[in-house]
Amino acid sequence: MTIGLYIHVPFCVRKCLYCDFTSYPYHPSDAQTYLQAVRREMRLYGKILSTEERKVSSLFVGGGTPTCLPADGLAAMIEDVGCVFKLLPDCEITVEANPGTIGREGLTQLAAAGVNRLSIGVQSFQDGLLKMLGRIHDARAALEAVQAARKAGFQNVNIDLIFGIPGQSAGNWLETLGRAVELSPEHISVYGLQLEAGTPLERAVTLGKLAACPEELELSMYRTAIDFLTGHYYEHYEISNFARPGRWSAHNLKYWLNRPYLGIGAGAHSCFRGERFANETSLNLYFEKVFRGEYPVKDREVLSEKMAMSEFMFLGLRLLRGIDLNMFNRRFGKRAEDVYSIQIARLLEQGLIEARDGCLRLSVKGLPLANRVFREFV
């Protein structure tokens, strides 16, 4: 058994206008306390985990903006992981980074600490759209961030991009895709903008100050991304993810394949020992619990068989290769075709999924309608 380890760094220089993740403005004193708390939490788990449960095959440091921390502090935190957990020789170690918060020197420190994959939040190569999203960088800084990663020795780089931004044209999107491909990253993630309730961008759209991207245009942008990126030899392996051969995200695969992962830090989520649980999102509550020697868990839920089967279906369908029906049978002792006979028959009839080679997977028609398919199994 191996696990995935996620560490959440909830600090940002400034919160983006579309973001509803757990994040706080960066203050040096809070950051130092936070790094101490993360070390404490890891050691709490070190007391209860078996030797097998300490084997980590993927480590992902996300946020927030992990790279708004001083590079030496972030590198030290990553090195501390090895004091509690056993990082396997081929462990994928990813750090999320935002342009404007990284330079060659800091990235070199991260590489020396064992980080072997960088995920850069570019989002767009149009300055006007970046400003609308509330990003702190411009297109030039995005380009320089990728170049700095290469100069620091990173050979596995992901670029995040967003489509469906208010005011974004089909031409804007095609230009962004083209500039991304010119940088030749090993991995590209494309996400449709979600107008999350309560965010400044959502309020602006609701109040009529901004016009939401038309649904048909957003769908067209998604199809453009698929055609363009696969045409440039990126493998479309998950709804939102494209990679060069052998460069799939090992950590994210754990989520989609229902493998165990442990989350460390304020607001981090875990799926471990048959339970899903989430840490306190409040920094103060997180600090209080950890420094008292308590696990900082806020919500905990035991996964019933019904829930586990449901998650197996809708998470597994995110992968373009689909769900291995034999694997479902081995895990649950039941056939997915029997448990979900009505749903599967309906989706097959609608042409939203297809059965092939012992797998169920989204069809070309079903791919942009994935959420509609997933609801059948929730």
TrEMBL record:
GO CC, any one term: cytoplasm
Gene3D superfamilies, per database record: Aldolase class I
PROSITE patterns (alphabetical): RADICAL_SAM (PS51918)
Cytoplasm found in the keyword field: no
Pfam families found in the cross-reference section: HemN_C, Radical_SAM
Entry's EC annotation: 1.3.99.-
Transmembrane segments: none
One of the protein's GO biological processes: porphyrin-containing compound biosynthetic process
Domain Radical SAM core: 1-232
Class of this enzyme: oxidoreductase
Keyword list, A-Z: Chaperone, Heme, Iron, Iron-sulfur, Metal-binding, Oxidoreductase, S-adenosyl-L-methionine
InterPro entries according to UniProt: Aldolase_TIM, Coproporphyrinogen-III_oxidase, Elp3/MiaA/NifB-like_rSAM, HemN_C, HemW-like, rSAM, rSAM_sf
GO MF term (any one): 4 iron, 4 sulfur cluster binding
Family of this protein: Belongs to the anaerobic coproporphyrinogen-III oxidase family. HemW subfamily.
Protein name: Oxygen-independent coproporphyrinogen-III oxidase-like protein
Organism: anaerobic digester metagenome
Gene symbol of the encoding locus: hemN
